[in-house]
């Protein structure tokens, strides 16, 4: 049972599907953290592990109860949420997204009702339980669009994080009546720090959050940042405290825009998503969005394919379409549609088939693991 009370014992959020060895490592990380920071007032949240190296454990993010509640206060203020506005929980409780939903309901004195997500039943669940607010990931939004699920009158806001929606999908779910707001945030910030409403081109920074740019990378300061990161590398555990200057340096390339109604973040992609092919700069993030838009037009499940780049002796990098076996018969159709629209050096030059693409529980690509799978198949 999650507790937000001051003085509560540290709470380690664990995916029940983890192996005994993985759970044991998380226990070691928790013990190492407590030697440095004590045994009370923290949530210890494992990262998604989307880019860890072979000899590394996942990172354990230490978020104080105060930080999690500070984030919830920002969101509740934005929504004008009250005890009358119940939350629907369709995301795992052991991720910061689910934790954030519970914190917002706790602060407002509202109910939080957990459900297993089903696109077919989603609208009826929202209506039957009078849900006002909920959070989803892009794959769930795609499922709602495919199902043609219409929004009931009681739903006031659906936050979408963990990835971005392409313009076609945004229009489609808006046409079904869903009040979708895209969010930008991460475990290190205890959930969202910027929001993009349908009318906005970029993400508006939330009140109480400061943003800056350093070496083209976004940095963030707010009262909901993590306290420390704990990780095991090559058998050695390190506990890294938050930088004392109070800024969190991200790996996201961005531009800040100051407008009359506030500051906005224009996200350009991850630092690692910028590569060169035949000497030309390429943004994988931008190309993935183009591919996803085409995939949606072709009604291909976005979880069943990914665009990745692998090193190439002559070109520097080459683009590869990775598909799951369930859609491999449509891979050439998707490649042809994509290649017809892109620049010559941005073309997909090969494909790769897997039984299942490695993803986190929230659907994010496990980039390092996918790269290892491709490299091992070529060895």
Structure report:
The chain is of the alpha/beta class and 379 residues long. The chain has two domains: 11-269, Rossmann fold, CATH 3.40.50.12780; 278-378, GMP Synthetase, Chain A, domain 3 (2-Layer Sandwich), CATH 3.30.300. The protein contains nine helices and 21 strands. The protein has helices at residues 20-37, 65-79, 96-108, 119-128, 138-147, 167-175, 284-297, 331-339, 367-378; strands at 11-12, 42-46, 60-64, 86-89, 112-114, 131-136, 157-160, 180-186, 191-196, 203-205, 210-214, 217-221, 228-233, 236-241, 248-259, 262-270, 274-277, 280-283, 305-312, 316-324, 348-354. The strands form four sheets. The chain has an eleven-stranded mixed beta sheet, with helices on both faces. Strands 1-2-3-13-14 form a five-stranded mixed beta sheet. A hairpin with a 2-residue loop joins strand 13 and strand 14 (236-241). The longest helix is centred in the N-terminal third of the chain and has 18 residues, at 20-37. 36% of the residues are buried. The model has no long low-confidence stretch (mean pLDDT 92).
Write the layout of secondary structure elements.
Elements: E1 11-12, H1 20-37, E2 42-46, E3 60-64, H2 65-79, E4 86-89, H3 96-108, E5 112-114, H4 119-128, E6 131-136, H5 138-147, E7 157-160, H6 167-175, E8 180-186, E9 191-196, E10 203-205, E11 210-214, E12 217-221, E13 228-233, E14 236-241, E15 248-259, E16 262-270, E17 274-277, E18 280-283, H7 284-297, E19 305-312, E20 316-324, H8 331-339, E21 348-354, H9 367-378
Parallel strand pairs: 1-2, 4-5, 4-6, 6-7, 7-8, 20-21
Antiparallel strand pairs: 2-3, 3-13, 8-9, 9-10, 10-16, 11-12, 12-15, 13-14, 15-16, 17-18, 19-20
Helix pairs in contact: 2-3
